[in-house]
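Hi support team,

I submitted a single chain yesterday and got back a structure, but I'm not sure I'm reading the token output correctly. Could someone confirm the output below corresponds to the sequence I sent? I've pasted both exactly as they appear in my results page.

Thanks,
R.
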Amino acid sequence: MTQAAAVEDDARAERRDFLVELGTEELPPKALRTLECAFAEGLHTRAHQAALQFGKVESFATPRRLAVLIRRLAAHQPDQRISRRGPPVRASFDAAGVPTRAGLAFASSVGAALESLGTERDAKGSDYLLYEGLKRGAPTVGLLPALVQEALDALPIPRRMRWGAGEAQFVRPVHWLLMLFGSELLPGSILGLSAGHMSYGHRFMAPQALRIDSPGTYARILQRRGKVLASFVERREAIRTQVDSLAAQLQGRALLGAALLDEVTALVEWPVAIAGQFEARFLSLPREVLISTLQAHQRYFALENAAGALLPWFITISNIDSPSPELIRAGNERVVRPRLADAEFFWQQDRKQPLAARLPGLAAVTFQAQLGSQAARTQRIETLGVSIAGSTGAEIAACRRAAQLCKCDLLTAMVGEFPELQGTMGRYYALADGESPAVAEAIREHYLPRGAGDALPDSAIGDAVALAEKLDTLAGIFAIGQKPSGTRDPFGLRRAAIGVLRIVLEHRLELDLPAVLLHAARLQPLADVSERAAGIGVELYDFLLERLRAQYLERAEENGISTEMFDAVLATRPASLLDFDARLRALVGFLKRPEGLSLAAANKRIANILRKAIGTRAPHVAPELLREASERALHDALEALRSPLGSAIEQRDYGAALDLLASLKPAVDQFFERVLVNDADAALRENRLALLSQLRSLFCDIADLSRLPG
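Hi R., thanks for writing in. Yes, this is the structure output for that exact sequence:
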């Protein structure tokens, strides 16, 4: 190897760190962590797709920047060995050996002389032209700007904005771009900016430009000279540590919810925890009101004592290391006191009239233009809730009362100021009015679950009213043709559907789902709903079951359920979700057995035979036409199974039912080995088809096994 070649090989094996930082105006705090992870994942994926070798990928995010650092990124793509087959040799040269257009075209397409090409013989003995060559890997420097742009274009940004006179679009205006490969500044323009060496520190404590000469020094320079803790994870942990320490000094424990901690982390670059105090009299307010005021509105951390009672303290995270922290403390205390005073006023005013007195006022509150007012909706929830109460074990009168009052707190001043407290405040006001604790609790619970992983209602009344509320929403929005499409779901129907499924399955409620859905559809205030109700009910059943499919498949490794198994049970359209679940779990166990797989394959074969023989099947099996011993044996086995099989299915003992069907395997195998179904004699043929139809119907009483692979 020449010295020049050795130098080139060393250059191609070189690894360097790569850094890209995008400096912006303040990014949306609730989206910051998502944007950071998506940017890092996008660059990781695209570098991998470009066949670039690299080490660890690190990400950074603050209110004013998104950055990704890729360690030990290869300076070149690897070289690729290329092997490409061309046309047959006989088509590449004529009888005199002169190259044809086909041969010349192939040589031109690979950039080689025809005479330099090799040949390759296939399994049939035919010779083809063959090109083998080496494609040199491209320099990484030339690839990176495009990879960064693609990753930015793919970020989950619902609405992008323009700024200035340019055409660039991003979630917020972009002010600087840093892009280094090792110590080399990358050429190129992204979002209308040319890359430079400069980053910027904290907006107030270190606003000067900071030169970054090496990717590895990025985070250290920002922290030491820029007063910016660039790592989201490190900044969040610093906030947690400071808050816990300060809370302990106040003999309390901070309420460190994950969502609030992430949002506060996304609001600061240099976190400093500061404690503030408010008057103890505000502790007489409901706990949720205090927490909502402090956390949701002010992004403060509330404190509680060892017994779980709130303390008259809060902790705020300042974005500046002030020489006068007492001024920041006083400023935050001045802000929070009026908010707590307002909440106290709302609490006192709202209790001057009972919750039930607001029921007529719901007639003036529109639920949806085509579906009427909240008053009309409350009546539908009441009717539907009472019909469901028997399935949940709820007391009818209490269920009716909870349904009547469940939306009344929407008209209270407190919920007007704190919409997230709807249901919660209804519970407090109902208790203050002397309503039964069960009714009050159901008013709170009827919104549950509010999201994935949220708690379910704890009471039978709560189950009934929560199901009624969600099913009414689903039926109404489907009835007006506004069902979800793609990622759009403005009415939260997917969330409502998952709530219905979780309540029914986790609380083991025996509910005739098609009947309830039909009832919910018929209650909708639309002129033509009586004619369309059945169709709406079918649509809703399918919508709910698709959500159920997703839930099962998310845990496929754990439960062993495949989409084909789900479809096999779905084909039977069980009315009960508990019944559906029992069938599916029994099917999983059945298919782990050798005879289960064999009978599934036989069912597929039977389904194909019957599908092709539509219109020629006898209505019943005529025993006198069973000529072969194998078909008589199968018929006798089917008849012997009918009673015990029917009993097992009636009791939903699908495991036992499938065990009984598994015993048919020898008879089924012998039938297909020894009996010709499509006999020339039409009477025999139709009788055998009827026998197969009976066999298939026994399986289809549990699941349609023909939908399984095999």
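A quick pointer for reading it: The first strand starts at residue 15 and ends at 24. Let us know if anything else looks off.

Best,
Support desk
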